[in-house]
Design goal:
By secondary structure, the protein is mostly helical. It has helices at residues 12-18, 47-59, 66-71, 73-84, 89-112. The chain has five helices and no strands. It has a domain at 46-113.
């Protein structure tokens, strides 16, 4: 006796958390999906940059939630501003790089709506 269970669709919030760079099933063409570190639809920051950012912020005694940086725009800008106010020069440079990436992503989203 076996039972089968139909897969339940993901809620939009859970989908954004699990697939911050887009879910493959939502793209008309897989080549249109933005990928970490590669400019594309949305120009998302690379995972390597976000992990470096988290590590450098940790050295300053500040926390960063990487997944939240991918889906919560206000949180990301707040963490970037906090890093930019740091005395740590490499952290400030990375914060500027991330700010530019997020800003380009926001502009691209505004143009597409």
């Amino acid at each position: 006796m076996s039972t089968t269970h139909a897969a339940q669709p993901l809620s939009p919030g859970l989908k954004a958390l699990l697939f911050p760079f887009g879910h493959p099933a939502d793209a008309d063409d897989w080549r249109e999906l933005p990928t970490p570190g590669r400019p594309g639809l949305g120009d998302d920051p690379g995972m390597g940059a976000l992990l470096r950012f988290k590590s450098m912020m940790g050295q300053e005694g500040l926390s960063v939630h990487v997944a939240r940086m991918c889906y919560d725009r206000l949180y990301a800008y707040e963490r970037i501003a906090c890093a930019h106010a740091s005395a740590n020069d490499p952290l400030r440079r990375l914060a500027l790089e991330l700010f530019q990436t997020y800003h380009r992503r926001d502009e691209a989203r505004q143009l597409s709506t």
